[in-house]
Design brief:
Blueprint (H helix, E strand, L loop, with lengths): L13 H15 L5 H10 L4 H12 L4 H16 L6 H14 L3 H14 L4 H13 L3 H11 L7 H13 L3 H14 L4 H13 L3 H11 L8 H17 L3 H12 L7 H16 L7 H9 L9 H13 L3 H16 L6 H19 L3 H11 L10 H18 L2 H14 L4 H13 L3 H22 L1
């Protein structure tokens, strides 16, 4: 039988096809009913694609429990390989590579599948996930553009392309593609997210707040990641608008608490708390609550991007023994890294982790040195530009507090050229100019900061 994308599916029934079509739509819109598909896969063990999709769902949890379940579903699919077609055997190879943590191989397989079976949107989406997690922005775009001609009428594909384009700094194209997806179907939270990235990159914070709030009614039926992450993006806009109190309220009501055990929800929480603290906000005992859910993750190492967030959250919560243990474990992980991932673990994650630990305990000179060492390699850890900007902000904070004013000034000037609409950047410039004895420039930057802040206060009123 063929599924709703016109793809032949072995050993399928009408119920099987309905389940796969449901999964395709629900995964692409980041829905919260994915557990219903797992229940179908548990009942019907005759169809390879059911087991493979269940394996992908559970592997994507980036947890030991998810990994164990994923390997179990993969084993069931592999046992059915004799009756599988070429596409399904390609899926088995790709998911096997994922389960073996050979993400480079998995990405290459999904990229090839995008050319051979462009209607297989689940393969393209998983391929993009691997590209994202390895910092391969060109692959994000390549996969989307390989499938676009066969799916020009599908809004999800335009949203997938939009995010890849934004990560490749093709901002105008990205925003157009994201807005086109939403025009085709307003219920596309990934497209909302892609447009938010474009607006954040351009420093259009007021427009970003309006955009995200106007779409937020569609997020209630999203899974915890998409819900919390889109609210997190709104929080970033609010922080840059000097509305940190509203961002902290979002943290308490929308960002932390949907599924505290899930890694991506934890990343959103750590990232927003850290950014709020950088703006001088007292976050109270919130770090302690987050750390409760981070302590079991010391030795997981599914992703250097995840690990760096876990470690900083533990460090800010004062969990010094856990931080020491995780740093040692990270060094072991880096020592055993495969060739394609050595940059991410050894050259980026290890020095960044030590730098984050130093920052958390107030050793700012060491933090500046180590984070500066890691930053040129940071794209390799995965995550988006907006997410990795946290580590750049901590580095800048360390430079300023360590008195490394010339280096801090260069970063602030670059940031101000990139996004000249952020009051806090102007304040940083004023502070550093003052330390360097450049009084007139300090006064100009301080005046510009106040003018922007007044503009934003007026817009809010």
């Amino acid at each position: 039988m063929k599924d709703g994308q016109g793809l032949e599916t072995s050993s399928a029934t009408a119920d099987t096809i309905a389940a796969l079509d449901f999964l395709n739509a629900e995964w692409l819109r980041y829905g919260n009913r994915l557990g219903e598909f797992i229940a179908v896969a548990d009942r019907d063990e005759r169809t390879p694609m059911l087991q493979l999709m269940a394996a992908c769902l559970t592997l994507s949890m980036d947890s030991p429990e998810g990994e164990a379940l994923g390997k179990r579903y993969l084993a069931k699919a592999t046992a059915l390989a004799g009756g599988a077609n070429d596409r399904e055997r390609a899926w088995i190879a790709a998911v096997t590579a994922w389960a073996d943590r050979d993400i480079d191989k998995a990405l290459n397989l999904h990229t090839a599948m995008a050319s051979q079976w462009p209607r297989d949107l689940m393969s393209a989406k998983i391929g993009q996930l691997h590209a994202f997690n390895t910092g391969d922005n060109e692959a994000l775009v390549a996969i989307a553009e390989r499938i676009l001609p066969a799916n020009a009428d599908n809004h999800f594909v335009h949203g997938m392309r939009a995010f890849g384009l934004e990560q490749c700094h093709r901002i105008a194209e990205a925003e157009a593609s994201g807005r086109k997806a939403v025009e085709m179907n307003r219920d596309d939270p990934w497209a909302h997210h892609a447009v938010a990235h474009c607006l954040e990159t351009r420093g259009k914070m007021l427009e970003g707040v309006a955009w995200m709030r106007s779409m937020s009614d569609t997020w209630a039926t999203c899974n915890s990641f998409m819900q919390t992450h889109n609210w997190w993006h709104l929080g970033l806009f609010l922080i840059d608008l000097d509305r940190a109190d509203e961002a902290l309220d979002l943290y308490d009501t929308r960002i932390w608490g949907v599924w505290k055990e899930f890694c991506q929800d934890q990343v959103n929480a750590v990232s927003l708390l850290a950014r709020l603290e950088l703006r001088g906000v007292d976050v109270g005992n919130r770090w302690v609550d987050v750390a409760t859910y981070l302590k079991p993750r010391l030795h997981e190492h599914y992703s250097p991007f995840l690990d760096l967030h876990y470690l900083y959250g533990l460090a800010r919560a004062g969990e010094s023994s856990a931080v020491t243990e995780m740093l040692a474990s990270l060094e072991d992980r880096a020592a055993s890294a495969k060739p394609f991932e050595r940059t991410a673990w050894a050259e980026a994650a290890v020095p960044a982790a030590h730098g984050l630990a130093a920052h958390a305990k107030g050793d700012f000179a060491e933090a500046a040195r180590l984070l500066g060492q890691a930053l040129p390699h940071l794209q390799s850890i995965g995550g988006s530009h907006a997410q990795r900007a946290l580590f750049e902000s901590l580095h800048l904070d360390a430079l300023m507090k360590a008195g490394w004013n010339d280096r801090a000034l260069a970063l602030l000037q670059a940031g101000d050229r990139y996004r000249p609409t952020v009051p806090e950047t102007k304040r940083g410039l004023a502070a550093v100019y003052g330390k360097l004895g450049r009084t007139e420039e300090a006064m100009t930057a301080a005046y510009q900061a106040e003018q922007l802040a007044r503009q934003y206060r007026g817009a809010k009123a």
